[in-house]
Design brief:
With about 120 residues, the protein is an all-alpha fold. It contains five helices and no strands.
Length: about 120
Amino acid sequence: MNTPEWIKPALGGAAAGAIALAVVGFTWGGWVTQSTAASMASTAASEGMVAALVPHCVARASTDPEASVILAELKAASNFNRRGVVEKAGWATPIGEERPNRALATACSTALADL
């Protein structure tokens, strides 16, 4: 079987174009793999949950009978230890959960320290 002369350069050009398209798409086009998209969605969901629950955490802190003692301890604590104070107080434990959320405790401690 005789193949035309133009087949080999055409296939080479198509392969080079496909590689260039993939490089441009993943580098500048915003294309991502499935695992990267899942990771981005998980991060966004976690950040959204924290943003939604910070007011609830601050409200729990304001209604706690021992709030003045805990807030004094929070203000005296270093930035590194503030999250632990909020976790120990139970203010960063979402409803229905058994353990406090670390990201929520960090955001809540920042919000409470600004009060």
